[in-house]
Amino acid sequence: MAACLFCQIINRELNASIVYEDERVVAFNDINAQGPTHVLVVPRKHIASLNDLTADDDESVGELVRRAAAIAKSRGISAAGYRTVFNTNRDAGQTVFHIHLHLIGGRPMNWPPG
Ligand code: 5GP
Ligand code: ZN
Which residues lie below 8 Å from residue 5, measured CB to CB, with a gap of 6+? Predict the structure, then answer.
């Protein structure tokens, strides 16, 4: 999916500040960080949104979540806390249609979100 922004980042066709990668998962700093830590954790596989997940993706999604927790730990924000978010479609404000787990932390946050 060459037209997908995050596929381009994964394939190194577009520059990003990559903080972690392995065979299935890539994590990079959000270009418009909403906190001292704002990392996007994505599967190498192109999946447009949570609406497109199948049972075959269960392992990858589990890895995204565990990787987000590991990055939070490595940044020393686990105890204070952090937020993990998947935005899906219009009402949630999804703008990039390749699933990504936002890891945001390093500051207190409000709930409910806007
Ligand atoms: P969404 O709104 O789809 O949940 O989140 C998309 C995120 O991707 C936004 O937080 C936005 O700042 C980030 N983003 C958009 N374009 C780029 C880019 O070219 N590079 C990086 N690193 N992040 C991007
Ligand atoms: Zn993609």
Answer: 14, 96, 98
CB-hemisphere CA count at 13 Å for 45? 15
Question: What's the number of CA atoms in the CB half-sphere (13 Å) around residue 77?
Answer: 21
- Give per-residue pLDDT as tens, 69-84: 999 999 999 999 999 9
State the virtual CA torsion across 54, 56, 59, 64 in degrees, nearest 10: -50
Distance in Å, CA 32 to ligand 1 centroid: 7
Pocket test of ligand 1: the residue of 4, 12, 26, 30 to mutate, having most ligand atoms within 8 Å of its CB, is: 30
Question: Dihedral sign, CA of 110, 69, 20, 102?
Answer: negative
- Residues labelled catalytic: 100
Residue 1's pLDDT band, with cuts at 50, 70 and 90, is: low
